[in-house]
Every structure is written in C-alpha cells, then in structure tokens.
Write a structure and sequence with these properties.
It is built from 22 helices and 35 strands. The chain is of the alpha+beta class. It has a domain of 140 residues: Penicillin amidase (Acylase) alpha subunit, N-terminal domain, CATH 1.10.1400. α3 packs across α9, α12 packs antiparallel against α13 and α18 packs across α20.
C-alpha cells in the first residue's frame, strides 16, 4: 500500500514539475527559447512515460550482438544477464542500464564533461567551469587513448557503449525521449568509451578530491601555526584502530610511470579545445566549488570474519559504502553471467562490471581509504611573465586549453585553463594554486576492476587491484574457503622528506611528487588471529608507518570501528541476521566516552528542574541514537554546544574565514579533528588552555561542559517544548532522498530517522541528512562456490518517477529488510538477438 501511495505522490510531483516548466518553456521566457514540438501532446515530453514505466517480456534486436542474450527481472527490478560471450554480456549490461537509467547516465557524463549548461542553462555554468578546469574530460580522453583495444577494459568499454547506443537508437526512432529532453528539446549524443571513463572520474572525484591543504593554509593564516598544529594534528591524539599494525618495511617510493593528463609538458606551448574566440573566462577567476564535485563526508563500513567468529565456521562479509543518497541511486544492482564472468552486486551506471558484490568464489566490499590524493602547489609567478611559471631553475610557458561552453537559452561562454607541470591552475577558496590530483592520471582502473570481478582467491584479487589507482580504497574480502583480508589499493603520492604535503607546496621543483607508496608495503591484513578485519575510514596503520597517508583531517576517529569490534567480542559465532542488525546499529561511541564525563561534571552543581530532567535522561542511557530517544537529542545538542563553547571565541577572535569553506572551517559542521581533540582534552587534559577563551577568563573542561549543557537545554526547550521526555531524536533528526534533478516532489519525502555521523548506520553531519549507507551487502559463504547473499539500497532500478521501480527499494532499506543478491524468480524476460 505504501509503495502505491509513494508512486502516486511521484506521479503528482512529476506532473506538477512538468506543468510548471511547460508554462515557462512553451512560449519561452527571457533567454529561454520556446520548445515548440517538444510539447506536442502525444509526443515529446508526454511520450516518455509509456516507454519506460513498465518492463514486460519481449524479444529485442540489438545489432552489435553476436549471439542471443537472456535478461530476466525480479519483481523488484533486479536484472540478471546471461550471455554466451563476454562481448555480448557487456552490450546487454549497457543496454539494460541505459533503458532504465539513461537520464542519470547523461547527467553524470554532462557533469564530468562540463556540458550541464547545454541542457539546464546558465545554472550549470559553475559546475561546468570547475570540471573543465580540473579536467575530467582531458583525463578520460587520455585514458581511452592509452587503453589497448584488445584488453578486457577496451573490449568492455566498446561493447558497453554499443549497448547504450542501441537504446538511444530506439529513442531516436520512437521519439519517446525521457522527460528532460522533451522539455528542453536538447538531444543527447551517442555514448562512447570516453563517456564511461568520465562517469568513473566523477565518482572518483566525489570520493577523493578535497581541499584539505587549502583549508590548512586558511587555518594557519587565522589561528596561526601553533594552534592549527595542536587542533588539527597530523596524528590524532585519541586511540586509533589500525588494521595493519606492522612491522613495516621502508622501500623507496614507486615512480609514477603514467603522466598526469592535466600536467603541461614544460617544453610545450600548444593549445587545445574547440574555441576560436578570445576567452572571456580564465582559470584565474575564483571558480566556486559546487558541493557535488568534491568529497564532503566520509562514512563507510566493511568487515569480514571467519573461524569461531562465524556460526558454523567459514567466512562472512558485510559492507555498506556511504555516499549521498539520491533518486536514482549511485547503484544499479545486476547479475552478470558469461564464460568469463559470474558476478553479482552493485554496478555503477555507465561502467561495465560490478564494483561491490560476489562471484562464484569470493566476495568484497570497500571503503574510502581517505589517504592523501589532492596536492596543491603555489607556483612562482611574475607580472612580467603572465603566462609563465618558474620550475626547476627556468621560466616555463603554461599550456593553454580553451573551451567553448554551450549554454541553453544563452550565448556560449569561453573558458581558458592554464596548465603547469603540476596540473591546472585554479583559484580555490581564494588561493591561486595548481592542482595535482591522483584522479587525473591516465591509468587503467577499469581493467583492474574487471580482473577483480574474475578473481577466485585472495592472491588473485589483490593482484588484480595492483593496477587500481584512484580513488585509493580499502578493499575488504571473504571467500568460499574461509579466508578473509583487507588492503589499500590506489596511488598515495609521496613528496620529499621534510616537506609537508598537507600544506601548500612550493611549485619551484623542490617539493614535487617523488612517487607513490609501493604496493607491496601498502596497508594490508590476511586471516588475522582475531578472525576479524574491519575498515571504517580510519587510519589503517600505526604512527610509525614510514609513509605519509594523511592527517587527522583525512581519517575517521574510529567510533564506528569500536562498535563493530565490540559487537564481535561480545557475541561471537555470528549469523547473517547479526550482520544486518549491526549494519543498522545506531550506537554513538563518542557518547559512550564523553557522557560519563558530562555526568561527573554536573554532579554537585545547581540545576533547574528542566536541567535535572535532561541530565536524568542521560543517566542509564544506552548511547543509542534511536528515533524515539530524548537522551539522544540531549547528547547531540550538548556536543554541538560544547564544540561552540570551546572554539567559537577563538574563531571570532582569530577571524577564521568559515564562509570560505563551510564544510571544513565552519563550527556548525564541527570538523572531525576538533571533536577528537575535545574528547582527548576532556578525558586526559581537562585543564588544556583551549578551554580558557581569548579574553583570559580561566576555566576548565568541567566548567565548560556545565555551561554548554545549560545552553543545550535552553536550545532544546526552544525547539521542542518544555518537557525533556518529549525531546525525541526523530523530532530533530531526519533523512531525505532527493532527486538528482533537484526537482521538488521527485525525491523521497523527509522522515524522522535515527543515527548520526558516528554510528554504524551513519548519517551526514547535518540534522536533515541525505547521506548514508548507499547500499548494504551481506555474504555468508556456506561451502565451495555457495553462499547466502543479500543486499538492499535506498532507491529503485528506474530513473523514471512514474515507474513502479523508481523508489520501491527505499521502504525495504528503511525497514531494515534485504533482498537476495541473485534472485531465482523472474517477473519479465527479454530475449536479445542480433540483427538490424
């Protein structure tokens, strides 16, 4: 019943949005031209629904196929593809994905290529300028040029593109375009292998591109070096949870053998691009950072256990990568069967193969390694040489790349990007720097992923991922022989000894990257005595690891890790249902550590009746951020108040430019290192000088907590009323799953939710979160080649709002229910055959 109501809401929402846009676009408005035939009843926008709503059994002709392919669908929309050749498998994967998710595919490639404005008008310019400057398109072209056409990746990319284009050809014949193309009159181009590599680059960017060194620069300018180093230390002061505790080898860095596609050859003065007109925009301007283009939150869990930790022995794996939750989702669940592949799991729309899942013998999931991946160089420039920079003892000309950005309803915008040997010149958060990002190297990550899809044991799996370069990821593994393991794969750049790569680096040549951490000594673990491997974005090694991985601003504090480890210690002999329970756990381990300190601070102090009632809620609380828990509201509001009480006077006195980057510098987001140092001071150093504000009024942790608690109670009373017993967490904390188009009415409505950024079932750092477990996977190996595997993600297989498969999986996800990863039942079957 609920799903029918949801579909009705989306039908009404999509109709309302369409009508509103039709009123504007039908006649044209300002720079937006009339769309004419796109709005003809029976065609254009109106025709798209019938083509994409219902999936029924049918026979289809795909010209590029060699042999027939069978595609079956479960009632929930999960697709299984059975092909006689690997070539036909990827044609079918491309076709199925495009038929159900083409709008998403096109929006993702447009974002990465800097072509959103062509579809959405001037609103897309901020993103387009940023992406063209950073260079995902330049990188994708370089990667395709370097990909052997007869390699697994080359063949899969070509076949996948053919499958997508088979669906595009059908749309061209029928005119049943998805709504956004009917409304705008814009028609998408054919899909190419470069498009897939761009889409892959978009996900890499959202997981690995960040501005940490620039933020450090802004902090040092305001707080000064001493406070910045104390409050945002390289090594966190609290207990960490490495999964590789050594001993470590110290080998020379491995050379970067593949040149960055975004670095200028010092001897080159060439230009590239489509524009012949003079540039009206250059990379000198402060290009804003859209939230969609960089890593903002990081929360993912993956763990595996074997031996006595698993009921009946063997191995069991759980994984839930945390990303933005959107409709449609990052994920498209699929099962692929051919002579070379027997794999099922979550695929990335636009990319062949499966990113998380299982094959006949192994299973895997992943988390963000959080290691350094973005370096920034302060180039030596001269007003007398405006198009040059000084590097390795000589002035070098910048390479200029010119673009013309088409803008629907307006004139094209010209853009010029300057490239140095370190990468593109960009003005980031007010700092003009060149950007050396590991995602801009022309590696063949897809070949590594496809080899991992085919692996049958740990050595083969880890060996396959030797060539995985960006983003750096923790891969967690379990197999049908009872083995488990975890390791980091990806490039982690190293600079000369004595340099500080978490700050802006000198561009003159003495702080250039000297290589990456050798794969042989990357953090790793296999069949540990504890019978547990777990990765939650924490620092994977001890402080004596001889390579630079990142600072406390990179890594998670380990609160989720503590909950996962304690769960295994307390229970043991676990079953799949225990893992699904753990994936939905909302215990806040920071509360476990600090609430006792708060209660001690409140002992013996005079409290009002309301304050006593709030304190009593925390006494005996189980530290679980449940929707109906008023204690959770008291804890969260107190913590926020405590952070502000300690640091806001310093932020004000030192004029920290929080507006430059609200995600890292703004205390409303409570940067992770501040919570860690505050935990450390509260427990181990309650007289730390930071508790005394700049005005010199002496106080300690106890006094500060008392003040923060009183302010928190006043705040809660103002928001939720006078009765602390009624301050349920769900009244403050909500989730929503917005549409990727941003259109209101096309997302999943906001609802009360448990959890917070520190719980296993994580949410984003804001009270209304659209971030969290983007897919949940549990695999229990029951024998050689046999496993019980379940998964769920908050979305649906189709990107058409009126489809029954648009958001039908959200309620399963909300209700902590899972579906089989490979379901035997079939509600519809496509027979794909070769022909014209």
């Amino acid at each position: 019943m609920a799903s029918k109501v949801s579909r009705a809401i989306h039908l009404v929402g999509s109709t309302a949005v369409a009508l509103a846009v039709l009123l504007v676009l039908g006649a044209g408005y300002g720079p937006v031209p009339a769309l004419g035939k796109a709005l003809v009843p029976g065609g254009g926008v109106w025709a798209s629904a019938s083509a994409q709503n219902a999936v029924r059994s049918e026979t289809l002709t795909l010209p590029a196929l060699d042999k027939p392919v069978r595609v079956s669908f479960t009632a929930e929309g999960y697709a299984s593809v059975d092909a006689e050749t690997d070539h036909d498998l990827f044609i079918a994967q491309g076709y199925v994905t495009a038929r159900l998710r083409f709008t998403q595919l096109d929006l993702q490639r447009r974002m990465g290529q800097g072509r959103l404005s062509e579809l959405v008008g001037a609103a897309g310019l901020k993103s387009d300028k940023f992406e063209l400057n950073l260079g995902l398109l330049r990188t994708a072209r370089a990667r395709w040029a370097a990909t052997p056409r007869d390699s697994a990746a080359g063949q899969a990319l070509t076949a996948y593109a053919a499958g997508v284009n088979s669906w595009l050809s059908r749309l061209e014949k029928t005119g049943e375009w998805p709504t956004i193309y009917g409304l705008t009159g814009v028609r998408p181009q054919k899909w190419t292998p470069i498009d897939t590599l761009v889409v892959q680059g978009v996900l890499t960017q959202q997981m690995n591109f960040n501005t940490i060194p620039v933020d450090y620069e802004l902090l040092r300018r305001s707080l000064g070096p001493k406070l910045t180093e104390e409050w945002f230390p390289v090594q966190a002061p609290t207990k960490q949870h490495p999964y590789d505790s050594g001993p470590y080898k110290d080998l020379p860095p491995e050379p970067l053998t593949v040149r960055s596609s975004n670095a200028a050859d010092p001897s080159s003065t060439s230009t590239a691009g489509a524009s012949k007109a003079a540039a009206r925009t250059s990379s000198h301007e402060d290009v804003a950072l859209p939230d969609s283009v960089r890593q903002l939150d990081f929360n993912s869990n993956a763990w595996a256990a074997n031996g006595p930790e698993v009921a009946g022995g063997g191995a069991m794996l759980a994984g839930d990568p945390h990303l933005a939750t959107t409709l449609p989702s990052y994920w498209f669940q699929i099962s692929l069967r051919s002579p070379g592949y027997q794999v099922a799991g979550g695929s990335i729309p636009g990319v062949p193969g499966v990113l998380v899942g299982r094959n006949e013998h192994i299973s895997w999931s992943l988390t963000n390694a959080q290691t350094v991946g973005t370096l920034y160089y302060r180039e030596k420039l001269s007003a007398e040489r405006p198009d040059s920079y000084y590097w390795n003892g000589a002035w070098r000309p910048m390479k200029k790349v010119r673009y013309s950005i088409p803008v629907r309803g307006g004139s094209a915008v010209e853009l010029t990007t300057d490239l140095t040997v370190h990468g593109p010149m960009m003005t980031v958060l007010g700092q003009r720097v060149s950007v050396n990002w590991m995602g801009n190297f022309a590696h063949n990550d897809l070949n590594a992923l496809l080899a991992a899809n085919r692996a049958s044991d740990f050595a083969g799996f880890r060996g396959a991922l030797r060539d995985w370069k960006a983003p750096a990821l923790n891969f967690v593994y379990a197999d049908d022989r009872g083995h488990i393991g975890s390791f980091v794969a990806g490039d982690v750049p190293q600079t000369p000894k004595g340099s500080q790569p978490w700050l802006l680096l000198s561009g003159t040549g003495d702080e250039d990257v000297v290589g990456t951490i050798p794969y042989e000594v990357m953090p790793q673990q296999y069949d540990p005595p504890s019978h547990l491997v777990a990765s939650t974005n924490q620092r994977p090694t001890d402080p004596d690891y001889p390579y630079f991985l990142g600072t406390s601003m990179n890594f998670d504090p380990g609160y989720r890790q503590s909950v996962i480890e304690r769960f295994h210690t307390d229970r043991g002999a676990l079953r799949p249902e225990d893992y699904t329970t753990l994936q939905n756990d909302v215990t806040d381990d920071l509360a476990v550590r600090l609430v006792p300190e708060l209660l001690k601070a409140l002992d013996g102090t005079k409290l009002t009746g309301q304050q006593r009632a709030a304190r009593d809620l925390l006494t005996g609380w189980n530290h679980s951020m449940d929707t109906d828990s008023p204690a959770a509201s008291v804890w969260w509001t107190f913590l926020d108040s405590y952070v502000h009480e300690v640091f806001q006077p310093w932020w004000d006195e030192k004029k920290v430019p929080a507006s430059k980057d609200r995600w890292i510098l703004d205390l409303d987001r409570s940067p992770i290192p501040l919570r860690e140092v505050l935990e450390h001071w509260t427990v181990d150093d309650p007289d730390n000088a930071a508790f005394t504000p700049p005005d010199g009024a002496r106080r300690d942790a106890t006094q500060t907590m008392r003040t923060a608690f009183r302010k928190a109670v006043t705040d809660l009373a103002g928001k939720l009323g006078d009765r602390p017993a009624a301050w349920d967490w769900g009244k403050l904390h909500t989730r929503e799953i917005p549409s990727i188009t941003g259109a209101p009415g096309l997302g999943y409505e906001r609802y009360s939710a448990g959890g917070d950024p520190w719980t296993v079932n994580a949410a984003g750092g804001e009270l209304n979160s659209s971030y969290g477990p983007s897919i949940r996977l549990v695999v229990r190996w029951t024998g050689r080649g046999t496993a019980d595997a379940v998964a769920i993600y908050p979305g649906g297989q189709s990107d058409t709002p009126t489809s029954p498969w648009y958001d039908n999986l959200v309620e399963f996800w909300r209700d902590k229910k899972y579906l089989p990863l490979r379901a035997p039942d079939s509600t519809a079957t496509w027979t794909l055959r070769a022909g014209e």
